[in-house]
Amino acid sequence: MTATDLPDSTLEVRLASVPEGLPEPGHFTLSRTPLAAPAPGQVLVRNRHFLVFPGLRTLIGGRTKGLPLPSLAAGDALFGPAVGEVVAAPGNGPLKPGDTVVHLAGWRDHALLPAAEAVPAGDALPTPVAHLAQGAAPYGALTRPARVRPGDTVLVAGAAGAVGTLAGQIARLLGATTVIGTTRSPHKADRLVRELGYDRVLLAGPGQRPFAEQLAAAAPDGLDVVLDTVGGEQLTAALDAARPGARVALVGALAGQMSAHTAGDRSPAEIDTFGLVVRGITLTGYSGADHPGVEEEWTRRFGAWLRSGEIRFPYTEIEGMHAARAALPELIAGRHFGAVVVRL
Predict the structure, then answer these.
(1) Contact partners, residue 36, CB within 8 Å, separation at least 6
(2) pTM of this prediction?
(3) 31 is in which domain, residue-wise?
(4) Beta partners for 47?
(5) Which residues contact 232 (CB under 8 A, 6 or more apart)?
(6) pLDDT value at residue 319
(7) Ranges for the Enoyl reductase (ER) domain (predicted)?
(8) How much is the pLDDT for 155?
(9) Is residue 267 domain-shared with residue 168, that is, in the same domain?
């Protein structure tokens, strides 16, 4: 592709206004933005897929203290994990046109970025979109602080999302005997059992049997491991049901992040600290930055599991940039199963 053939603009999703409460499609707009030709040390990438991730809710809320990502103000372009094809790479760098790369400049059809920020996808995974799977966090949590052991009973709170749909499968592959999940949707509960091997899935939310009662019936002997992506009432009940020596890993806080009553940065839960001490329960907030090498280890094992058919990567595909404006509100509303990716 010659310089005259390169696109001179990119179509991107921008935050039109900061919502009071949860974002709606009208809070986002499509914008055609001029695109310069890449200079040496830069690459131009045609995006193929990008991830819709719930952390955007917190970034839009502006409460980013302690986070490695910046907040989003009105007029800013959204960003996030993406996979695409290099269309131009001036100079003699390692990247060449046609290479598949992973980067953080999603939410646009073309991305101009420093070559160092575009990571070659390699051949560890059988399909490029698999690089958008949110499995590194649950894998790291279940192999490090939570340490799943053969015979364990594991609870995954928030089992139908991008993390939870992989977490239950990972727990089983690591030796868990019983894997219990939670969701708000009976349809999703059925899919989790039928398609992803959950032994039982509990329904949380208004109109349901008290969650603590459901959990006591599902795990009468208690829980050995909890992987929590939700917080709130579900975390409280899980800690009460934990056995002596149980390991609890927190990898999300969706109860607060998806609430219209917060800025997406708080997820309070009532915790009996006396009970944790008496039963010797560990409670850890998992951060991948604290565990170097997890990402590479996960990618290697994930690729092998995908090729052998031992694991599935469930995701919902949204078609095109014009549909992307509604993607985050739909994710927050719980309309989709598994990860949510936009395909261009």
Answers:
(1) 112
(2) 0.95
(3) 3-133+314-343
(4) 84
(5) 255, 256, 267, 268, 269
(6) 98
(7) 21-342
(8) 98
(9) yes
